[in-house]
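Risk register update: the risk that structure generation would not scale has been downgraded. Supporting records follow, first protein first.
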Amino acid sequence: MNIVRAENLSKQVETLSRGGGGQPLVILHEVNFSVEAGDSLAILGASGSGKSTLLGLLAGLDAPSSGTVYLDGVDIFSFDEDGRARLRGRLAGFVFQSFQLLPALTALENVMLPLELHGASDARERATEALQRVGLAQRTTHLPKHLSGGEQQRVAIARAFVAQPKILFADEPTGNLDAATGAQIIDLMLELNRAQGTTLILVTHDEALARRCGRQLHLAAGRVM
């Protein structure tokens, strides 16, 4: 079953010249593909090829110029921004290059946050278990500033997986890490992908990393190659 489907997905922005006019800049052009539930997909391409723009559109964080995206059979752009946010909260988790942890919260509190936002009564227990799964059982009370980059990304992964999302979107999750730590992070994400059946959609420029995913999608100048 398709859990993610992009149909004729395009994105362009207007550019302004000194004379006041401008030509549209095409970032993505009629992208079509689908992802089966439980698969892992790497989106590859050079800088400026449209990778992160595509990921943002798939997650409904940005709106396309034309075309649409279906998540779990639902046309996400049939909803307004608030509706898309609710859909993301129900279906998706996120991991970013810059970790995006809240600096005033401990590792445990950061992982508890999405559960608490959904009113889960067992947030602490589930967050503790998630941190144990990513090897941080001894770091639960540490603030992000007292964790290494690899440890911060493990907290971010625990936070992303703790609510057992159907889809995990990851944007260059190893971009701020050294090669050895980055390989460990990918090991962890693929292990959780298999264990929980979570569909993984990963943006990366690293072909060796991408080959570890079940499928690769190559972008060049906004088009699928």
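Supporting record for the second protein:
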Amino acid sequence: MQDTATERRAAQPRPEQGGKMIVIQDLHKWFGQYEVLRGIDLEVTPGEVLVIIGPSGSGKTTLLRCINFLEEYQQGRIYIDGKLMGYREQGGRLVKLPDREVSKMRADVAMVFQLFNLFPHMTALENVALGPMKVRGLSKQAAYARAREVLERVGLADKVEAYPSKLSGGQQQRVGIARALAMEPKIILFDEVTSALDPELVGEVLAVMKQLAQSHGVTMLVVTHEMLFAREVADRIVFMDGGKIVEQGTPEAVFTSPHSERLRAFLKRFFER
């Protein structure tokens, strides 16, 4: 049986000849003296589902946080839909944009975190509607209508009035995904979104992400250790180690014919048990 990503590519070819949604050029990021990202070059096409894998400490989360400018980068360039993210160029140097402009750009690059980060005093509906009202400027009525729509999309139509404390971890994470969708972003970044969940709750969150991947809409970058999910859903897989991209390719190429010894050793932990 064809996997999900293969079926999607056959049904709707990727827009390779069109513009790039994300362009990363020679990206470097330091924390003090420690260089976390060491010259990342990456391009992502509109609607592509890119899965990033690699050992802990390889820079995967930092890369996502630089893409939506939760972390400032010190060297290189990140372009989102043709616009330099977080900075303007002045005399060949990067000058940080005012916070208001950064927030406006960041609204197009939603992020779903490992921990749910829901406001405990707000219902699921209120949590999801907050961003569209505060950032996108929607009226309460319009924001609530959008929130109901996306909560239904992630299978939580019956939980709109529930507070986070009354939701399971999987349900809370699905609210987090709905919150990202409600912003109608160009890109959604998923950072190990199942790592904090009990094993029996992982499947329900992955199912929602698979549904999003099949929708041919938003560009998705997914950091995960769920290798079977990556193999089924990704258009392309990037393997990072030591702050660099070591290898990348289709799921078929990465999982069946890895070129580097580092990738072979990494995959062995998951597939030779």
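DSSP finds ten helices and twelve strands in the chain. On this basis the risk owner (M.S.) recommends closing the item.
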